[in-house]
Each structure stands twice: as structure tokens, then as C-alpha cells.
Amino acid sequence: MSNLKVTVVGAGVVGLSTACAFQRAFPNADLTVVAADIDSGIVSYVAAGYLSPTVAKMPTSDLAVLGKWTAASSEHYRAIATSADSDAAGVGISPLCELSDKPNAEEPFFAPYVFSCRRLTDDQLDYLLPNARSAGIATGFQAVTVYAQGSRYLPYLMHNLRSGGRVSVRREKLNSLAEAADGGCHLLFNCTGLGASKLCSDPDVYPSRGQVVRVHAPMQKLALHGPGAFYVLPNRDDVVIGGTAGAGSFDLNVSETDTEDIMTRAYRILPALRTARILGAHVGLRPYRRGGSRLEVDRGLLDGLPVVHNYCHGANGVGLSWGSGVHAVELATEALRSGRPRM
């Protein structure tokens, strides 16, 4: 399609993934990315970015769709992790223990999409994590999964996007999606996360406040993910320990009480972390939506202009972003083939 002009609103991991996926599919299109924040002010920068979506934290109730996103994202990250771009992108492969406080916990949803997921015997759980049972852990699954460190991966996506040509990036705080389309475009992607509450008047969008602590712990190679927003996730530059899940809270201030609680839980299961140097605590607002993520074409919002909504992935934004971005591009392709609107 010649002279195709497309706008992506939002420069978090979902917006940039969607933009890169679209650029791959339409390399000759003119692409504009519009966002109020295009750097470390974005919640994606705080994320450890492990691919381990679980039923309890699913961004959508449609398991087929979630499986599609998980499979595509897993393969995308695996390809980067095994390439020369691995370090620059902050993308890697890591062993992971999924922990549960339920004695007969079901196999995690992500099991088919990662490498060699298996239930640990009691002896194996005790061998890997001798203090887990005293901390209330009853069951464990071990797998090998992929991760993308947000503080490296987002700049990597932006670099690839700019290198692809025919891309402009505009820092602008919008009052409506219509403002992003004012310059003229044939299609618009809405990847605004929490901003969708205002920009497209979605009353179902709400935040979940997440606080993490980053520590210097090069000895910690095993990632842990468990109940009660507990996780210990090694990244390229540090280890991310969490967390909290404050539904409805917009508070971006670091809580010393939360920091103490997070580290106390971690020390109970991994006493070796007591010697780790704390680098700092960070807070981000995860974008959630009652009813699940929104991924659909909307022709009624901007006078017939196709708007592809792709927002609110909850705690799985980094992990599932590539898969949902590819899905959004598939919907966009169908919308464009059905008739390109006049600008």
C-alpha cells in the first residue's frame, strides 16, 4: 500500500511493539508515534518482563487469544535471546520456579509455551528452596522461560523503529485521540494503557500500583514467581524483587513499609539475599481493565477512521506485548483491506 500513513499513540512496550510489528508488515508506510512519555517515565521501564502469564493474572478471559499472544511473544524473545542483540536488548533465557501455596496446584497456563515445564517433587522443591515450605509454599513447577528487561528493551525497540526509516516520534500530551489524527492518517493504533480512560472515555480502565526493589545479587540465577505478588527475577543488570498489587491506587511514591515487606518475604525464602546490596525501589502503575485487555477495531470513535485499540495488559505487558502487537497488526491489515478512509 503506497502513501500509507499510520499513527501509533503510546510509547510503552505495547505501543512500540505494535509500531515495530506494523513496520515489519508495511515497511514503506509513514509511521508516527505520539506519546507524552517516551523514556524512563513509562511503567514498562520498571518491569522485569518475564514471560509467565498465569490464570490469576490474565489480561483477558479468552484463553485462545492469550495462548496466541504467549506463543508469538515467546518465540520473538527466544529469537532475540539467542542472537547477537541479546545484551543490547536486555533479553535473555532464564530458569524459573513457579510457586504456589496450594498443595495440588494445577500446571501453570504458560507451560506449553516455555521450555520443559514440570512439577517438582517434594524432594526437588526442598533441594532448590529449603526454606520455601516454612514460608507457606506447597507446590513448585520448574521451567525455562524468556525475559526482557524493560530499561534496555524499550530503547532497543525505539532504535529499531527509527532505523527502519519513515518514522517520526512526537512527544505530546494529548487531550483526545482526535488530536493525534489531526495531521492526517489512514489508521490509528491506540496503545495508551491507563491513558485510555481519558483519551477514549473507557470507564473500565484502572491502575494497579506495583512497587519493586532492585538489588545487586549476581549469585541469584533462579527466577521465582509465587503467590501474593511475590517474585525474584534476575535481569541483565540487577535482580527485581516484588511486589505489591494496589488496585485503584495512583500513588507513585515509594513506600518504605512496602520495601520492608517485599524484602522480608524474599529473605524468608532466599536468605542469601540478605547480603545483596539494595540499589533502589521503584513504583509503576500497571494498566488493568475490567473485562480484560481491549484489542479490537473501532470505526465509530473518529468519524470512520479505523482505530485499533490495544491496551491494558495488566502485569503481563512486557511478556505479552509482541504477541498482542502482531495481533493488532493483523486486525489493522484487515481494516485497511476493507477500505482505506480518506484523510
Automatic annotation (TrEMBL):
Give the FAD dependent oxidoreductase domain ranges.
Answer: 5-331
The UniProt record gives the binding positions of D-dopa as: 231, 286
Keywords in alphabetical order:
FAD, Flavoprotein, Oxidoreductase
Q: Which GO terms describe its biological process?
A: D-amino acid catabolic process
Q: Which family does it belong to?
A: Belongs to the DAMOX/DASOX family.
The record's InterPro entries line, in alphabetical order, gives: DAO, FAD-dep_OxRdtase
Which species is this record about? Macrostomum lignano
**Location in or out of the cell:** Peroxisome matrix
**Any idea what this protein is called?**
DAO domain-containing protein
Q: Does the keyword Secreted apply?
A: no
What parts of the sequence cross the membrane? none
UniProt cofactor(s) = FAD
Question: Carries keyword Oxidoreductase?
Answer: yes
Q: What is its main location?
A: other
User: Which parts of the sequence bind FAD?
Assistant: 192
One GO cellular component assignment for this chain's record is: peroxisomal matrix
Which terms does the record give in the GO molecular function aspect? Answer: D-amino-acid oxidase activity; FAD binding
